[in-house]
Amino acid sequence: MAFSIRPSLSSFMLPSLSSHNRSQKLSAFHLRNGVRESHDFGLKASSFLRHDGNCMRVMAFGNMSPAATQEDVLDWVKHDKRRMLHVVYRVGNLDKTIKFYIECLGMKLLRQRDMPEQRYTNVFLGYGPEDAHFVVELTYNYGIDDYDIGTGFGHFGLAVDDISRIVELVRAKGGKIIREPAPVEGGDSIIAFIEDPDGYKFELVERAPSPEPLCKVMLRVGNLDRSIKFYEKACGMELLRTKENPESKYTTAILGYGPEEKNTVLELTYNYGVREYDIGDAYAQIAIGTDDVYKTAEAIELAGGKITREPGPVPDLRTKITSCVDPDGWKIVFVDNVEFRREVL
To answer: Where do the catalytic residues lie (predicted)?
Structure first.
């Protein structure tokens, strides 16, 4: 099956949303953002148009057997240079959120991208340069001051060396404390929960200084085994550990591209008996770096994933990307490593 490249800025950036029907599922969300409807792809031969400079050529696997394609492409995923780049979500008051992140959480404003014609602004904040650290990308859509976070998004994780100081700072600045510092259930680690001005929760974890302070993104899923398989095969992540919590009726799985003490990880949570969540319209996506967006798209297909944007360059930026959704509808964007570094340096 061949696909035509239909570059659309809205499929990578986050255009304005209508002010109604905010709690629709992701499939509807994608449709109203101009992204083509997702399709399921099995283990079958396919091809993509590859853009190399000013040329286009077909990257085809039609002359290979499905088994050979699966083996070669999925093996390539294991050796691809991947890293979690940033997490994207929408906010209603950009200045207020930036101030909270800088003054309370100690982040730095890294860069800002204004898109007046598309009526939105992106702001990047974090604890170090984007080419080496996981950061947040805040999106403000002109005229929209609130969003529905839904029930599926969990929280972000933040490693801090003095949790009490951060909690008191948040309290002094008028922030919301969800959970006071205390040992985690069944363990010795000290954690606390706070909430930012838009209602996004942050789990503060007290531990020695970390090379990646923004250490975790937690999402809820309806079938943990299915999700683990997807992130291993399609995204090339490693399952680092799982934890059963039968008394509280949930299980968590930690996945990532290296030890969680040094890298940002994805935490998937399965609550017993809950198969579906409302993902709202506030949280957007995780971006992951790759050496080849075209092979990445092939791997996603072979793993049974849903492509929401065929691989190719983003208009204006010219950075090549591809995107997909996981089995629960959480969006993932893969970005060309070389072109990403060119963009941020």
So the answer is: 203
